[in-house]
Amino acid sequence: MTILVAGIGNIFLGDDGFGPEVVRRLTSPEESALPEGVRVVDYGIRGMHLAYDLLDGYDALVIVDAIPGRGLAGEVSVLEVGHDDLGGGALDAHGMDPVAVLSNLATLGGQLSPTYVVGAQPEDVGEGIGLSEPMTAAVPVAAAAVRSLLADRLCPSLTTHGRAE
């Protein structure tokens, strides 16, 4: 089984950099290894790169991102996303958000695998580098949620040796 964990977000817009920060945490030397077959990538704002990587045919996708409109600042949520949840989004080689990437995957020749989003409610997405206090506190919670999702639902029988990029 191959699983892609994709960190999404703009580190120059405060809490929008949540996804890359969680990915950094998941791949830090202090953290235990992820299961074999798990690929962890910080896509930042490179939506088209994510779209092309998804054409490789992963068995599951875990997106880590700031997700507004989901409670108090720093509150972590885990969502399962299906094609009917996506709506639309335009193909744009210069930047595509995750919804546009996933909703246009079939147009690019791929298909949507089981997809989950691990995210947290941002407090501030204004210009600036660094997460707010609530989002900083949410990073280890979200990293634990990704690990739990991998262990319990996606690859409970796999060994640990994941690779990061």
Main beta sheet: 6 strands, mixed
Main sheet strand line-up:
4-5-3-1-2-6
Question: How far apart lie the N and C ends?
Answer: 18 Å
Q: How many strand segments?
A: 6
CATH superfamily placement: HybD-like
Structure class:
alpha/beta
CATH-assigned fold name: Rossmann fold
Rg for CA atoms: 15 Å
**Mean of pLDDT:** 85
When the domains are counted, the total is 1
- Low-confidence runs of at least 5 consecutive residues: 159-164
CATH architecture: 3-Layer(aba) Sandwich
CATH class: Alpha Beta
Large-scale geometry: globular
Number of helices: 4
Question: What is the H-and-E element order?
Answer: EHEHEEHEHE
Strand content: 15-25%
Helix content: 25-40%
Description:
This protein has four helices and six strands. With 165 residues, the protein is of the alpha/beta class. It has a single domain (3-164), classed as Rossmann fold (3-Layer(aba) Sandwich), CATH 3.40.50.1450. The chain has a six-stranded mixed beta sheet with strand order 4-5-3-1-2-6, sandwiched between helices. α1 links the parallel β1 and β2 (38-44). α1 (18-26) packs across α4. The longest helix has 22 residues, at 133-154. Mean pLDDT is 85; it is low at 159-164.
